[in-house]
Every structure is written in structure tokens, then in C-alpha cells.
Hints:
The complex is a heterodimer of chains A (110) and B (114).
Chain A: E1 4-7, E2 10-13, E3 18-25, E4 31-37, E5 44-50, E6 53-57, E7 64-70, E8 73-79, E9 87-95, E10 98-101, E11 105-109
Parallel strand pairs in A: 2-11
Antiparallel strand pairs in A: 1-3, 3-8, 4-5, 4-9, 5-6, 7-8, 9-10, 9-11
Chain B: E1 3-6, E2 11-14, E3 19-21, E4 23-26, E5 32-38, E6 44-50, E7 56-59, E8 62-65, E9 75-77, E10 86-96, E11 99-104, E12 108-113
Parallel strand pairs in B: 2-12
Antiparallel strand pairs in B: 1-4, 3-9, 5-6, 5-10, 7-8, 8-9, 10-11, 10-12
Amino acid sequence: DTEVTQTPKHLVMGMTNKKSLKCEQHMGHRAMYWYKQKAKKPPELMFVYSYEKLSINESVPSRFSPECPNSSLLNLHLHALQPEDSALYLCASSQAGTQYFGPGTRLLVL
Amino acid sequence: GNSVTQMEGPVTLSEEAFLTINCTYTATGYPSLFWYVQYPGEGLQLLLKATKADDKGSNKGFEATYRKETTSFHLEKGSVQVSDSAVYFCALSQIETSGSRLTFGEGTQLTVNP
């Protein structure tokens, strides 16, 4: 089983809202990732968690706040987003250098 | 730094045509190489991978061979179907202490017409 799940599938939020994206994997992978993907572009790395600790933050604005409550779960908390943050947000987990992606959350910021 | 260059799209083919999508890379050391596929409205799916020189990855009729001498990992399929219409991303990965870091190509949009 190489499944990564993400909820919600779609999200519409205003610039003053607070929302969270959720990612889950039960493959025992110890590294998990958040990516942002704009239309017709490859995914851009945002954050990496390794053994439940934040190991990489690619200079992401503080309105995005990641959290790793345990080895299976990864959250992305969103607050005061801008319209340009509208994108597909992808979660991934990895084992031995191979990353497996979830289906993504399509976010629209109004 | 690492980089991946894919042939520019979009690519339009008729059903049962032969597909090649070129991918070349620049990297230090010995990266692993991947092809991911993204169908409309979905996330990325791992299509195939190769972890060392001369390895051939294959899946669903697609193949790619890790060529260190030409730093290439071209994707091929002998007979495409309408259902293969998607965006294909070539990527390389190097394992770091913090996890693995993927470097993607720009993606190639493939459309297969009946």
C-alpha cells in the first residue's frame, strides 16, 4: 500500500479565515513533505519533516504553519492567506528516497 | 546544483503511436531518477523509477533507462492510449539527512487523440 490521503479535496477561504489541511500515511515513512503547485508548473517544496521534526522550511511565509502531531499525520495551518496562495497543495511521504504523493487539496483564496 | 531538463510540450499523438519524452539531468553523485504522472485534477503518481546506472524502470507499458554516460532518463511507450493523456514530470532525488529532495523538470503535457 503506497497511499497518502489528504483532506479536504477542495477548500475555499477568505483572506481573514483560518483553516487547516490534513495529510495522513500509514506506510511507516519517517519523512513527510508539503508542496505547493501552481497550474502548469512542477510542485515547489515548502516544508520537510523528518522523524516528526521540521528539517526544511523553504522560506515559506509565516501565514503557512506546518505541524506534525505524530509519525502518520501532517497538518498545514493556514491564516491570513492572499489570493496568490491559491494553488494545489500536495503532501508526500518518502521511504529510501522515493516520494509518494497524495491527491492534493485545491485551495482557492478569495 | 541539481537540475532536470525535459523536452518542451505540449506533445500531441494519435492512439497507438510511439511516445518518447526526453529527460536529461545534472547532478553530483548518484541520484535516483523518477517519472511521475499527473492526470487532470489529481496529485502526482509515481510511474517508474531507477536507482542506479543502467537500471530500467518500467510500469504500465512505459519504460525508462538510467543512462549515466548521457545523463539521461528518457520515457518511452510503444503504443499510447487516450487514457495516457496527462502531464509527465521527470525528477531526480538525492537523499539528505533531512529526507529526500526532489528536483523536477518543467513537465510535459501529453494529449493522445483517438
